[in-house]
Amino acid sequence: MKKYYFILSILMLTSNLIFAQSEKEKTQETVNKNVIKGHIYFLTDDLLRGRETGTSENKIAASYLANVLRGYGAKPNPLTGTYYQDVLLKKTEAPISFAVSLNNMDRKDAIALVPAKLDFNGRGIYVGHGLEEDYKDLDVKGKLVVLLSGNSKNNELRTAFGLTSQKTDLAKEAGAIGIVEMVSNGEVDWSAIAHHFNADKLENIKKNDTLERSNDIPYVWIKEFGGVPSDLKIGQEIAVKLEINAPNETEVHSQNVIGIIEGTDPKLKNEYIIYSAHYDHVGIGEPDATGDTIYNGARDNAVGTTTVLSVAENLSKHPTKRSALFILFTGEEKGLLGSSYYTENPVLPLKQMVYCFNSDNGGYNDTSVATIVGLERTTANKNIKQAAKEFGLTAIDDPAPEQNLFDRSDNVNFAKKGIPAPTFSLGFRSFDGEVTKYYHQAGDEAESLDYEYLLKFFQSYVLSARLIANDPKTPFWISGDKYENAGKALYIE
User: Which domains does the chain have, with CATH numbers?
Assistant: First the structure.
């Protein structure tokens, strides 16, 4: 009997190895360095002028992607019969006039996060960090509130920005008419931030929204603490002057790109793996040392977009047991707009989406690894590690958790719904100069990429996809993950 079990174990091990080799061979058959180059060079051509959301060049990129999916035989969006999902956005132009002063000191370092019209000259109320406990016993109705960025434990810029929606809601509930937030700047390039936020803005138009919304209140950032005492007490009054003209608002039409390839297993084909990336970039910007003003976004995110095209090509020839939904998002650089719209308007039930395999990139500094943000947060981690190893790479998890990268790409909108959703990224172990010199810079060009490394990277992504989509066990969150309960609510309850 022992001999029988030994032989059976050997046979099972052998069959698994054969299966793994077969999947690797299927991957190698379709992932081609020249095809990868072709996609990336097209998407980063100057003719597309940086693929900014809402531009005609962004639409050209979308048309290219749609027709590539069409050529692979992917089925279109089942709700429209096309390869598009229309995304309606609101564009708010930067205010023509904008002035702030605190304690009679003009502030030239101001940033209008929400440039709603206001002409205020009076006394503002200091409300600490502007969180719920800070408003206790305070009357701020009809007044402007002045507050500190972040919370009592963390005042980093990213945390500060993440709390703006909550602070806005609390200020509105208390009857405030505007917010001036003093931000701890640290080592951050304030001028770059000001350039970004004091520009035109795009946002989703939700149901029942109109372009003219009367409930917006202005939200302004200034550097802490110039002209303001550092020992302010909650409830203390501060002289504030804030003038913002009414910015123009228009509708902008953009589009996600969608394709579907059905799975082969009679049961598992009802489960879908989402393969996603954003194809937009930041468009035209400040000239670099060479005078180049077109930010072509090779790393961010022509590479990620091409990973999705690569897996679509592979599955068109060798479909997996689970079905595939390919989504290429618009508006990521404007605030994850395309993915936010999609998760509120899915073309197929979210409950059937068992995994979202996103790809997004800023840069790379280690060509021996693939960095998967959220690698150890889902049970598919073993599939991804195995796939990377097959092509000579090591799959590593997020090396910079303090950057909160998991919640800064399109994957997070799916995670919030409960769908396991890591992001497959080019290899980086830290945010050093090799990464930052290309991130949102004009020098992020197709010719600056290492295509020998990219071939391994793409092969690792496609093989990971195949192993996950063919695994008899449905992937899920690791126990204790902050999105686990959302997953249980989506799939179980």
Answer: 26-91+251-491 (3.40.630.10), 98-247 (3.50.30.30)
